[in-house]
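[Discussion] Sanity-checking designs against the backbone

I'm trying to build intuition for which residues belong where. Below is a structure token string of 346 positions. I'd appreciate it if someone posts a full sequence so I can compare it with mine line by line.
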């Protein structure tokens, strides 16, 4: 089911990338603007958000409304907008195996002298255009105005809370590690991952379909559980997997001094010596490879991996209980159940 929906989403993205040029004449305004947007949004991706949007809708409807898939890609365009801005913040030169947007634009500007702007500045503007396109795409669906309005508000809320989560996460980096709480960690997970990637797409789709409020609330809770668990798993992979398995150094997350559940648990379950070692990592000084390897040993020794796996299992069990009580069509409930187990397999 997921692959079938993904194919339709990709087809819609291709179609939309051409139609926006006819509608807004972006290539006439600026070929650089249009060509970079088109290339970026057509890069291969998982398309999780539009897929979950479609499942949330069809779980309560027997057939798709006209323009449903066009509306679904609004979530992919919103995602692309956020990726462009995130790469600027993270100073990342690569996105989906290719140069990030600002890196592409800096290449275009290479050789130009006395500029008062750079690729990062242009990329911010392209990201803003992508946000506008996300709203444009969403409005394509032919559904009841009230349902459409409520679903649009959820799209706007997804953008608002995700960017707020990014803001909070950046500020958390200046908070001493000994003052970071589990609630601090989960707040980031909830805003940056759970709501944005899982809960919002599902509830947007269900809202557009006119599902009952209590059913929408069940999908919200399901998505939040799934999202928390998914982020914990992502932290495990980034810390304990082999570098060859994840396509980057398994010390990257530690080198960036990310505040994760693994770090929180380890710090609060370590002796004074190990706590001092961890505090040094989060003091702002650049740690060498041997120091990072030592931190990883402390993480493993503390039992943080087992603790994280237990958290994932509890969240998965909770999400499955929620699905059992849902009135979604059985085939879509089962698809979500299989999806949950697949992405949370550790």
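Best answer:
Here's mine. Compare freely.
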């Amino acid at each position: 089911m997921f692959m079938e929906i993904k194919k339709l989403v990709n087809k819609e993205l291709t179609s939309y990338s051409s139609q926006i040029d006819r509608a807004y004449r972006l290539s006439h305004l600026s070929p650089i603007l249009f060509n970079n947007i088109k290339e970026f949004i057509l890069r291969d991706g998982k398309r999780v958000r539009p897929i979950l949007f479609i499942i949330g809708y069809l779980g309560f409807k027997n057939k798709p409304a006209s323009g449903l898939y066009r509306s679904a890609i609004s979530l992919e365009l919103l995602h692309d907008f956020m990726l462009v801005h995130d790469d600027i913040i993270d100073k990342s030169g690569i996105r989906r195996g290719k140069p990030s947007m600002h890196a592409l634009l800096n290449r275009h500007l290479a050789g130009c002298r006395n500029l008062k702007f750079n690729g990062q500045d242009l990329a911010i503007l392209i990201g803003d255009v992508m946000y506008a396109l996300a709203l444009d795409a969403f409005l394509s669906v032919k559904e009841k105005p009230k349902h459409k309005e409520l679903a649009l508000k959820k799209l706007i809320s997804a953008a608002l809370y995700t960017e707020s989560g990014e803001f909070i996460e950046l500020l958390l980096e200046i908070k001493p590690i000994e003052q970071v709480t589990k609630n601090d960690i989960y707040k980031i997970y909830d805003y940056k991952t759970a709501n944005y990637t899982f809960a919002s797409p599902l509830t947007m789709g269900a809202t557009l379909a006119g599902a009952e409020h209590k059913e929408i609330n069940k999908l919200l809770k399901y998505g939040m559980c799934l999202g928390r668990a998914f982020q914990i798993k992502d932290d495990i992979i980034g810390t304990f997997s082999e570098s060859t398995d994840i396509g980057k150094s398994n010390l990257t997350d530690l080198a960036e001094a990310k505040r994760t559940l693994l770090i929180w648990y380890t710090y609060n379950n370590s002796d004074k010596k190990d706590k001092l070692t961890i505090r040094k990592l989060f003091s702002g000084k650049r740690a060498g490879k041997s120091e990072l390897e030592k931190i990883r040993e402390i993480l493993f020794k503390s039992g943080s991996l087992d603790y994280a796996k237990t958290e994932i299992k509890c969240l998965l069990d909770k999400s499955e209980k929620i699905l059992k009580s849902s009135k979604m069509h059985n085939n879509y409930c089962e698809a979500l159940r299989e999806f949950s187990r697949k992405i949370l397999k550790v």
